[in-house]
């Protein structure tokens, strides 16, 4: 865990969040500034900045958790379609330097494009 990391503090509970999923290696919570209803952030329970630095045990855990979390999110929101987004580095739009995946439920009328 990294002392000044917002997402590490969310994992430890020092910063409150609305939890969507948790197991020993993965945590998922609602985004504080959602692009759509149910916008969820999925993170490893180890501090790691970028996808290429993620230890194998955590990438396997996230790989198997993502479909389950996505299913729960789309079931909960009723939005059948969704995007998976993952940014690495400031130039790519990463604001929080703790690796994370966005699950963004989509509707035709959501104004996000496509
Ligand atoms: P990035 O731009 O780094 O890919 O996405 C970071 C995401 O984290 C943003 O969508 C932002 O709204 C979300 N976020 C930042 N701080 C917090 C927080 O304290 N709580 C929650 N729930 N989400 C946060
Ligand atoms: Zn962290």
From TrEMBL:
<protein>
    <submittedName>
        <fullName>Hit family protein</fullName>
    </submittedName>
</protein>
<feature type="domain" description="HIT">
    <location>
        <begin position="6"/>
        <end position="113"/>
    </location>
</feature>
<feature type="short sequence motif" description="Histidine triad motif">
    <location>
        <begin position="98"/>
        <end position="102"/>
    </location>
</feature>
């Amino acid at each position: 865990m990294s002392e000044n990391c917002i997402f590490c503090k969310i994992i430890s509970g020092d910063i409150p969040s609305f939890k969507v999923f948790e197991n020993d290696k993965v945590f998922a919570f609602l985004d504080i500034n959602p692009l759509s209803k149910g916008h969820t952030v999925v993170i490893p329970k180890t501090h790691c900045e970028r996808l290429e630095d993620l230890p194998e045990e955590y990438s396997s855990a996230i790989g198997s958790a993502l479909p389950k979390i996505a299913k729960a999110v789309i079931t909960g929101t009723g939005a059948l379609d969704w995007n998976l987004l993952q940014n690495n580095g400031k130039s790519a739009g990463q604001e929080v330097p703790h690796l994370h995946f966005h699950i963004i439920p989509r509707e035709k009328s959501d104004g996000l494009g496509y």
